[in-house]
Amino acid sequence: MTPHAHGHHSHHSHGHAHSSTAMEPDWEALAANLERDAELKVSFLEEAAAWLRDLLCHREVTRVLDLGSGPGVTTTALAHAFPGAETVAVDSTPALLERARARAEREGLASRITIREAELPADLPDLGTAELIWTSNVVHHFGDQRAALETFAGALRPGGVLAVREGGLPTRFLPRDIGIGRPGLQARLDVAEEDWFAAMRTELPGHTRTVEDWPALLVAAGLAPTGSRTFLTDLSAPLDPVARAHVRARVERFRDGLADSLSAEDLATLDTLLDDASPDGILRRPDVFYLTATTVHTAVRT
Ligand SMILES: C[S@@+](CC[C@H](N)C(=O)[O-])C[C@H]1O[C@@H](n2cnc3c(N)ncnc32)[C@H](O)[C@@H]1O
Q: 266: burial class by Cβ within 10 Å (0-12, 13-18, 19+)?
């Protein structure tokens, strides 16, 4: 499940056929949000990168692919973790790649980070091979997730590792009872988002229903699993203004994107949470936190 859902004005498309669907996120519109989301979880990225370095300790790593890099927060974290490698940010959204390029420059990594605009998984053969392929929150945007993983696995050099970030736990940011509306709002938001997500997947070109057993899918792609790990992002209340703004933006997307599936009472609660003048609003209430668990599944080409 992703926090970026609910872009209803998408012009983005998957695959060369450019058959876009109404439910695919508008990645460009979500750029600042994606970047801030990844920045809030930067400690996760550093921990995950250290783990990948351990998994690859017997192998020289000269090339890393970040497939669906978005704004490149992951790309630069990987480039820092693998100083002997060229790290390639691959994405289909030019505006996001522009952010990745700017970030690489800011962090003094421009000479080691390559930016490649590509439509995945179709363009993968043009991207060459790597000892580490990382793909975070991207596979679930492909109609056939199993086939996409097979394609990705095919670009691994012998001894190379594929790391797939999928699953984990939904983000929590409010107490069960927030003093307004019916308690348990976040659980109901989860249900509405799951339904939205399932419908979004059904509309993807070439949609194929798959059991989302990620280690088993990596085996089906011809790889040997090397473990799944879950990393906690735990920002406790009171949140700093950046994290608070991030939560507010998320609530706004729930309000806009899930209006059809929520009760009038829950929509009224969301309106109050979005009222920046109200002491019950996200920007002013003291109890807003940010807690999430992010899972990464890994496997090696033996
Ligand atoms: C949820 S974002 C994840 C960004 C980043 N990996 C992260 O975890 O922060 C999904 C990314 O996949 C990219 N994407 C979606 N469909 C794609 C496709 N068919 N080919 C290449 N990139 C794609 C989007 O542009 C977006 O940057």
A: buried
